[in-house]
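sorry for the late reply, my laptop died twice this morning and i had to redo everyting from scratch. anyway the thing you sent over, i finally got around to it. pasting the sequence first so we're on the same page, its 61 residues, then the predicted structure underneath. double check i copied it right bc i was rushing
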Amino acid sequence: MSTAPDPAPRPEPRKPKLVFDDPLDQQSSDDTDRGWGERQGDGDAAADLKRFLDEKPPHHI
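ok and here's the structure:
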């Protein structure tokens, strides 16, 4: 009668740490102009016009 060797004990899975920081103290992606889809402008009038025409709703054409 043969016996199988005992498997090595598995380490217990780590539990995530509880974080009690205030999430409102951290900057989110929505706190920046880039998070809202703003484009970095150089103040060019032609670029402003292009952006206006690109973002104009269809009922304003």
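The two ends are 86 Å apart (CA to CA).
thats about all i looked at so far, will dig more tmrw
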